[in-house]
Design goal:
mainly alpha, 627 residues, two-stranded antiparallel ribbon, 77% helix, 1% strand
Length: 627
C-alpha cells in the first residue's frame, strides 16, 4: 500500500480522528517511528490547505489530544519513577534524550518546560522527566500549553504551506524508482572506490592541523593579489564571451586566490566576482556565487594538502573542481535557466539527451559537466602555473589571528543560548512594529562590542533601551552610506521608463548606454558598502554615529588588512543571505536568521579588535618591528 495515497484518501472526521489518535499515542510515551508527530502534524496542514477538513476541528482536536497525552505521559512516568523509566528507555535508545531533558528541567520552572518541549527530540521526554522529578502539575501545564500552541502552529502551518508541492515531487519520483536505485548504486560504488583516498586526505589535513582551514592568518593576502585575482576572473570570462568559446573561464583568479591565500580568501574572491558580475553585465550571476565560493574553498584546502606541488595533485584538484561545479550548478541551472548552462555546447548536449527521454536532471548534469571538464582543466592549469611564478610568501611568525571555527560554535557554547535565539526570533517575528527589529539590531551590536572586548559568549538581553538606540543609529548610518547607490540608479530608472514608452530613439543610444553605466556604478557601490559593513559597524562601536559616517576612517580600517576585510565582509553577507533563506521557509525565523546574525556579530567584533591601532601595535611588537 502507498502510505501517501492512503493519507490522501482519508477525509473529514476520519482523518482528524486518525491524526489525533497518533499524536495522543506518541505523547503518552509510546514510540511511533513510522509516524513521527512532526510529520503527522505536517499532514494535518496539507489536509487543511486542501480543504478536506475543518481547520478549527483539526487544530482543536490535535491540541486536546497532545495536551491530554502529555499529561497522561507525565502521570505514568511519576508512577514508574526514574529507575524503572530508565529500564524501559534503555532498549528503546531513549536514555540520552531523557537525560538531556532532565538537564534542562533542573533549572526549574515553566520556562524550562516550554523551552524543552520545542527542542526536536526532547518534546515527549520532557513530559516523562517532569513526572519522575515530581514537578508540580500546574507548573508543568504553564509551560506545556504555550509550547503546544507554538508547536502546532509551526508544523501545521509548515504542512499547509509546503506539503502539497513536496507530495507532488514524491508522486513524480515514484515513476523513477529504477533511476533512484541506479543513482544509489553509483553513490555506493563511488564511496567504496574513494574511501582509501579520502582517508589519506583526512590524514594529510590532520597532519597539517585540522584547525588550519578554519583559521585566517592576517599575513595571508595582499591588495595586489586580490585585484589580480578579480581581474583574471573578469578577463577570462570576457575572452570566453568575445570569442564564443564553449567555456566559462571565470574561475582562474578564484583558484589562484585559494591556492595562494587559503580557502576563505579563495571562496571570498569567487563570491565577490559573481556579485560584481551580477551588478554589471550578468544579472543571473549572483546565485552561482555559491559555486564560485565552493570552488575557491576547495582550492584553498588543496593548499593544505600540497596538491599544487605534484602532478597527481593537479589532476585531483581538476576533478574536485569539476565535481563541485557540476553538482552545485545543475540545480541552479533548473532554477535560473530551465536546466541550461548558458554555454551553447552544454545546452545542445542537454537538449539532445532530454530529447532522447533521459531524465532531465541527468541530462542537465551531463550538459554542465561537458563544459566544466575542459573549463576547469584550463582554469586549474593556468592558476597553478601563475602560482608557481609568484614569489614565495614569507612564513608567518605568529599563529592565525581569526579563528572562524570558534565563530561558528560560540553561540551554542553560551549559557542559555536557546532562550537568546528565541528572543531574537521573537523580535524578528514582530519586526513590522519597528521597535523589536531595532532591539534585535542593537543586540547584534552589543554582541560585537562584547566580543571586541574579549568576551566569547552571548550577552544577556538586559539593556533593551540602549539596544534600541544603537539599532536606530546604525540603521540610519547604513542607509546614509547607500544613498549614492540610490541616486546613481535614478537616471537608469528614468531612461528605462522612457524606453518602455517607446522613446528610446529620441533619447539616443549613447544616453541609454551612459545611464546603464551609471546604474552599474551605483550597484557596485552598494556591493562595496556591504563588504565595508564590518568596518562601518566597527567605527560605530569605536566613535559612535559620526564615526560610522567618517569615510576616511572607514577606508583606513578596511586597508589595515584587505584580506581580513574581504573575508569578514563576504561571510557577513553570506550569513545574512542564509538567514533570509531560512526566514522564507518559516523555520528559519526560529533558528536560522538569529543564529547567522549572532555569528556575523562575532566576526565583526573580532574584526574590530584586529583592526584597532592598539591591536596593530601589539602585533608589531610580537613580530619584533613596527609597521
Amino acid at each position: 500500500m502507498n502510505p501517501i495515497g492512503w493519507v490522501q484518501g482519508l477525509d473529514g472526521t476520519t482523518l482528524i480522528v486518525a491524526i489525533c489518535v497518533l499524536m495522543f499515542i506518541e505523547e503518552t510515551g509510546v514510540p511511533l517511528p513510522f509516524a513521527p508527530g512532526d510529520l503527522v502534524l505536517a499532514i494535518a496542514g496539507i489536509a487543511v490547505a486542501g480543504g478536506r477538513v475543518n481547520p478549527a476541528l483539526m487544530v482543536g482536536g490535535v491540541a486536546v489530544s497532545i495536551t491530554v497525552g502529555a499529561i497522561l505521559g507525565r502521570e505514568a512516568a511519576e508512577l514508574l519513577g526514574w529507575e524503572r523509566l530508565m529500564r524501559v528507555a534503555e532498549p528503546l535508545h531513549a536514555r540520552g534524550a531523557l537525560e538531556r531533558a532532565a538537564g534542562l528541567l533542573q533549572r526549574g520552572g515553566w520556562r524550562a518546560v516550554f523551552t524543552a518541549r520545542l527542542i526536536p527530540g526532547l518534546r515527549v521526554y520532557t513530559s516523562q522527566v517532569a513526572g519522575v522529578s515530581r514537578m508540580p502539575r500546574l507548573t508543568f501545564l504553564r509551560g506545556l500549553l504555550p509550547a503546544n500552541a507554538v508547536y502546532i502552529a509551526a508544523f501545521v502551518g509548515l504542512g499547509a504551506a509546503f506539503g502539497r508541492p513536496i507530495l507532488a515531487l514524491i508522486h513524480q519520483a515514484e515513476h523513477q524508482v529504477l533511476l533512484a536505485i541506479g543513482l544509489l548504486v553509483v553513490v555506493v560504488v563511488g564511496f567504496l572506490l574513494t574511501r582509501a583516498p579520502a582517508r589519506r586526505t583526512l590524514a594529510s589535513l590532520q597532519a597539517a592541523g585540522w584547525t588550519g582551514p578554519l583559521k585566517f592568518n592576517l599575513d595571508s593576502v595582499g591588495f595586489v593579489l586580490i585585484l589580480t585575482c578579480l581581474g583574471l576572473n573578469f578577463a577570462g570570462h570576457a575572452i570566453a564571451v568575445a570569442f564564443g568559446l564553449p567555456l566559462f573561464l571565470d574561475s582562474i583568479g578564484t583558484v589562484l586566490a585559494g591556492v595562494v591565500a587559503g580557502p576563505w580568501v579563495g571562496g571570498s574572491v569567487g563570491l565577490i566576482s559573481n556579485w560584481v558580475s551580477s551588478n554589471t553585465f550578468d544579472p543571473i550571476a549572483a546565485p552561482y556565487g555559491i559555486v564560485s565560493f565552493a570552488v575557491g574553498f576547495a582550492a584553498g584546502l588543496a593548499r593544505y594538502l600540497n596538491w599544487q606541488k605534484r602532478a597527481s595533485g593537479w589532476v585531483a584538484l581538476w576533478l574536485v573542481t569539476v565535481a563541485i561545479a557540476s553538482l552545485v550548478s545543475t540545480p541552479l541551472n533548473f532554477l535560473m535557466n530551465g536546466g541550461n548552462s548558458g554555454v551553447a555546447l552544454g545546452d545542445s548536449i542537454y537538449g539532445a539527451l532530454n530529447g532522447a527521454h533521459l531524465p532531465r536532471i541527468v541530462a542537465a548534469f551531463v550538459g554542465e559537466a561537458a563544459v566544466d571538464l575542459p573549463d576547469k582543466l584550463l582554469t586549474v592549469v593556468a592558476a597553478l602555473l601563475i602560482a608557481q611564478g609568484l614569489p614565495q610568501q614569507r612564513a608567518a611568525r605568529s599563529t592565525a589571528d581569526l579563528d572562524l571555527g570558534e565563530a561558528f560554535t560560540f553561540v551554542i557554547r553560551s549559557d542559555r543560548w536557546v532562550r537568546k535565539l528565541l528572543a531574537g526570533a521573537a523580535c524578528l517575528l514582530l519586526f513590522w512594529l519597528i521597535v523589536p527589529f531595532l532591539l534585535l539590531v542593537g543586540y547584534i551590536v552589543e554582541i560585537a562590542h562584547r566580543v571586541r572586548s574579549g568576551a566569547r559568549a552571548l550577552p544577556p538581553w538586559d539593556h533593551p533601551w540602549q539596544n534600541i538606540k544603537d539599532g536606530f543609529k546604525l540603521i540610519i548610518a547604513l542607509l546614509i552610506w547607500t544613498i549614492p547607490s540610490v541616486l546613481l540608479g535614478i537616471p537608469a530608472a528614468i531612461v528605462e521608463a522612457a524606453v518602455n514608452e517607446g522613446s528610446r530613439e529620441a533619447l539616443g543610444g549613447s544616453i541609454y548606454a551612459l545611464a546603464g553605466i551609471v546604474a552599474a556604478i551605483g550597484s557596485v557601490w552598494g556591493l562595496l558598502v556591504l563588504l565595508m559593513e564590518p568596518a562601518i559597524i566597527s567605527q560605530y562601536m569605536d566613535r559612535g554615529f559620526r564615526g560610522a559616517l567618517n569615510v576616511a576612517a572607514v577606508i583606513r580600517r578596511v586597508r589595515v588588512n584587505l584580506g581580513l576585510s574581504i573575508v569578514v565582509g563576504a561571510l557577513v553577507v553570506v550569513l545574512t543571505t542564509i538567514g533570509l533563506i531560512g526566514l522564507v521557509v518559516v523555520v528559519g525565523v526560529l533558528l536560522t536568521f538569529p543564529y547567522a546574525s549572532y555569528i556575523g556579530a562575532y566576526l565583526i567584533g573580532r574584526y574590530a579588535a584586529l583592526t584597532e591601532p592598539s591591536a596593530l601595535r601589539a602585533e608589531a611588537i610580537d613580530r619584533g618591528g613596527v609597521r
